[in-house]
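haha ok so turns out i had the wrong file open the whole time. this is the CORRECT one, sorry everyone. sequence first:
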Amino acid sequence: MAEQSAVTTVFLNHGEWFPAHVANLLSPTEALTFAAGAKCTRAVRLRDVPLPTGWESGRQWDGPGNVYEASKWQSLAGNSEASGALPQGGGTPPPSAPALKRLPSSDGQGDAGGTHTTFVSLLWRDQGWGNRKGMVSIVDENGTAGDGPDGQPLPARAPNDYKAWGPCVVAGAEPAPHQQERLRLAFRPKKGGSYALWYRAGGGGGHRLEIQGCTVKALEFCTGT
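then structure:
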């Protein structure tokens, strides 16, 4: 009888965790290609993330002339439970209400059910003329925006007009285009992380940011059985 290869032996003896461990080391595209190779390598799958009533798929902001700061739009995930946090029958969620009940990370081996990569997709544009200042970003609310003048860490937030992006910004883009375009953002969530969408229309007067069709997908770990 032919001897088993080392790889075959690993899959047979460690199939519950080894494929996820390999996928965890790969990019999203590579992980999906790896998962499509065989039943025993089906370590990830892409799915639509169900968002609760009250989730805003789009919005328009007209920037006041004297406001140059970025603002939080809505939460992507958090440690608290989403059930009961949203008003009955719809409405806008309170700032603390997470859109997802759980967004675990792929830290370590990548346990089945965890998230390899989270994707946010939306259509965006600015006012259609003049200077382009619009910004959309995803902020790790457990991170920091850098160190302040006194050396103390600054609270997590997205950058203001013409300011540097802090380490808490895990994904984002600027400036918004004059004509509507598709924007796709992706990030690897940390274990126990809490993430939020931030926006900036831009100061100086006449600036606008329009977002439509905002959706969330997750490349999540799974098993081949």
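The longest strand covers residues 207-221.
again sry for the mixup
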